[in-house]
Write a structure and sequence with these properties.
Strand order of the largest sheet: 2-1-5-4-3
Order of helices and strands: HEEHHEEEHHH
Number of strands: 5
Number of helices: 6
Helix content: 55-70%
Strand content: 5-15%
Radius of gyration: 37 Å
Structural class: alpha+beta
Shape: rod-shaped
Length: 228
Amino acid sequence: MQGRDELGGLTRAFASMTQQLSDARREVEQSMSQVDAARSNLQTILDNLTSGVIVLDSEGRIVSSNPGATRILQLPLAAHQGAPLEGIPGLEVFGSAVNAQFAQYWQGRTEHGLDHWQQSFDLDGSALPSALQDRTLTLVARGAELPDQQRLLVFDDISEIVSAQRAQAWGEVARRLAHEIKNPLTPIQLSAERLEMKLEGKLEGADLAILHKSVKTIVDQVDAMKRL
């Protein structure tokens, strides 16, 4: 009887352990499935993100990048995986500046409680691929720390926004300049015409001809400046 009780207990314990192992395996599989789904969702987001995303290791070498980074920089970043950002032709200055920003961020984050840094950069188009050589590429970049001392670099191309702002600023300068030039033009024209009326009866011959020609020149040039 006692032997059968021990055997029964052992059987029940074995069955319980088997069930626990099965449950644990199911939980692990479920967790792995969730991790895979999360990774897949993250990759989909990165692939469709218009911003450039580059993950660097602790030495500033490229671990991964998204298509947005390749599109903005017009460089095959996937081919440079494992290489330092500042070692890529055309990105030497940008890579050095990014490294400097991370160094400054690490020095001041404890004191100032920062969780990221942000900075704008102007990339010389002449050092970039032909598609960008006719303009300056203006980027606004943000950096943060990832686990295992990796670095996250996210950047956007704001060249068109900066260009539009500059055009707007120059348009305002031109408008004010035109206003300042136009203001004295009417008094100049009226003064010339008034002088002609006053002197017309007092001059004759060549002097009168010079008066009419001079006044006409002033009026014509005032009209030309108004049109300009």
